[in-house]
Amino acid sequence: MNKADVELVVITVKSGIEEALSLKVYKNGTLARRGSGGLPGVKISGMSLNTGPGFFLGVMNSVSQQVLDSPVNYEEEITKTALEYQVSFYGQSSNGDQGERAEWTQSVTLRFFMDEGTSYRNQLLGFVDGLAIEAMKLTDSWYFDLVMLALESKRSSVLPEHTIVSNFKNEDEAEAAFQAYFQQVNKKQLPEFVKDKVFTDPQGLAYKLLLQMDDQSLTYTFEPAASI
Hints:
The chain has helices at about 55-60, 65-70, 125-150, 170-185, 190-195; strands at about 5-15, 20-25, 30-35, 45-50, 70-75, 80-95, 105-115, 155, 165, 200, 205-215, 220-225. By secondary structure, the chain is of the alpha+beta class.
């Protein structure tokens, strides 16, 4: 598969049956993500259309033609908990769609299914792990905006208009997602995530997000944008 033909990159990381990360990056600008790479899995998922080419180009910048020429499906005996890392590349749609409805005719997958106590080492495993980390970094600010939309019903001024986000069944589920996300997010990056952004509620009122952080805790509040 030629690198120029890639239209979609899918990255997943799992521990046992729990998903730590699911990320889809499309060449056409569609972006979808669930999770922050850690456990317990952050059960906040969403998708944006028309995010521009930056996310896809950023991910593919780390992918060489040699990687696409080297599919892997490695499995070993599981004695404790299974760890699974997978990245798949898709291209050349037979139905003309390059989004969620595409019927891809080309694909390359690198999959590693291992025991958590594995001593297995492989250069391509290191690549997949590194690509997952890099892809998360590229999409972290966007994912923060998804989290605010899901938890607070406030839409970031830079979040694409065509964005959907998961709903929670109850307050306990929302609280669990809140706790999981803020335990895993790099708190040093949060000021950059909120910089120059305005958040709008369903009534159209605009807010600035203010952070209060120290070594022990993190809190945030929304203040009317006009008063700041």
